[in-house]
Amino acid sequence: MGTYGLHVRYEGDDDPKKCSARKLARFELAELHNSTRATPPGIVLNPFAEQALSPADGVGTGARHDRLVALDCSWETAEREAFDLEGIHRSLPFLVAANPVNYGTAFQLNTVEAFAGALCILGERDQAEEILSKFTWGHTFLELNEEPLRRYAECSDSTEVVAVQEDYLADE
Ligand SMILES: C[S@@+](CC[C@H](N)C(=O)[O-])C[C@H]1O[C@@H](n2cnc3c(N)ncnc32)[C@H](O)[C@@H]1O
């Protein structure tokens, strides 16, 4: 068991065969919830959130949440309103997807990549490696993003994370 409980509001409108959240649940590494009401509060990974995730959100800092929550749905339906989940909402800074569906795309991570990126930023690299180990391409996510993940994890707050992100956006 990792430091963070991983929870997924499971919408079920994406190809179930390719769904990374379902696979995590099969290995009992994440819990799926079929309604918003049934989803427990936590750090909600929301690409529309104003504030970027930073180490300041971690449990070690006295922050309230020891759960990460993702919304597993198709990117077609991932609109701002869909993220009506309880907790503190955080976006992930610049990271590149390594999964075969969206390889090389910045910011549009799949659920296991979003969890793994968040865990690395929060200093939980072992748990990130554990969940990625279930995917053939999983380690590629850490390789592609090695430098930004290390730098984000060294930041003290979201302002610093956003400043680091600028270095990568400039190269886009
Ligand atoms: C839209 S779903 C797509 C899931 C895909 N069907 C799969 O098999 O994993 C991906 C979820 O990961 C999280 N996520 C992805 N990229 C993110 C980002 N840049 N910032 C915050 N959360 C992100 C969000 O919870 C988002 O809803």
From TrEMBL:
<dbReference type="GO" id="GO:0000455">
    <property type="term" value="P:enzyme-directed rRNA pseudouridine synthesis"/>
</dbReference>
<dbReference type="InterPro" id="IPR007209">
    <property type="entry name" value="RNaseL-inhib-like_metal-bd_dom"/>
</dbReference>
<dbReference type="GO" id="GO:1904047">
    <property type="term" value="F:S-adenosyl-L-methionine binding"/>
</dbReference>
<keyword id="KW-0963">Cytoplasm</keyword>
<feature type="binding site">
    <location>
        <position position="71"/>
    </location>
    <ligand>
        <name>S-adenosyl-L-methionine</name>
    </ligand>
</feature>
<feature type="domain" description="RNase L inhibitor RLI-like possible metal-binding">
    <location>
        <begin position="6"/>
        <end position="36"/>
    </location>
</feature>
<protein>
    <recommendedName>
        <fullName>16S rRNA aminocarboxypropyltransferase</fullName>
        <ecNumber>2.5.1.157</ecNumber>
    </recommendedName>
</protein>
<keyword id="KW-0690">Ribosome biogenesis</keyword>
<feature type="binding site">
    <location>
        <position position="20"/>
    </location>
    <ligand>
        <name>S-adenosyl-L-methionine</name>
    </ligand>
</feature>
<feature type="binding site">
    <location>
        <position position="92"/>
    </location>
    <ligand>
        <name>S-adenosyl-L-methionine</name>
    </ligand>
</feature>
<keyword id="KW-0698">rRNA processing</keyword>
<feature type="binding site">
    <location>
        <position position="111"/>
    </location>
    <ligand>
        <name>S-adenosyl-L-methionine</name>
    </ligand>
</feature>
<dbReference type="Pfam" id="PF04068">
    <property type="entry name" value="Fer4_RLI"/>
</dbReference>
<feature type="domain" description="16S/18S rRNA aminocarboxypropyltransferase Tsr3 C-terminal">
    <location>
        <begin position="43"/>
        <end position="169"/>
    </location>
</feature>
<dbReference type="Pfam" id="PF04034">
    <property type="entry name" value="Ribo_biogen_C"/>
</dbReference>
<dbReference type="InterPro" id="IPR022968">
    <property type="entry name" value="Tsr3-like"/>
</dbReference>
<dbReference type="GO" id="GO:0106388">
    <property type="term" value="F:rRNA small subunit aminocarboxypropyltransferase activity"/>
</dbReference>
<comment type="similarity">
    <text>Belongs to the TDD superfamily. TSR3 family.</text>
</comment>
<dbReference type="GO" id="GO:0005737">
    <property type="term" value="C:cytoplasm"/>
</dbReference>
<keyword id="KW-0808">Transferase</keyword>
<keyword id="KW-0949">S-adenosyl-L-methionine</keyword>
<comment type="function">
    <text>Aminocarboxypropyltransferase that catalyzes the aminocarboxypropyl transfer on pseudouridine corresponding to position 914 in M.jannaschii 16S rRNA. It constitutes the last step in biosynthesis of the hypermodified N1-methyl-N3-(3-amino-3-carboxypropyl) pseudouridine (m1acp3-Psi).</text>
</comment>
<dbReference type="InterPro" id="IPR007177">
    <property type="entry name" value="Tsr3_C"/>
</dbReference>
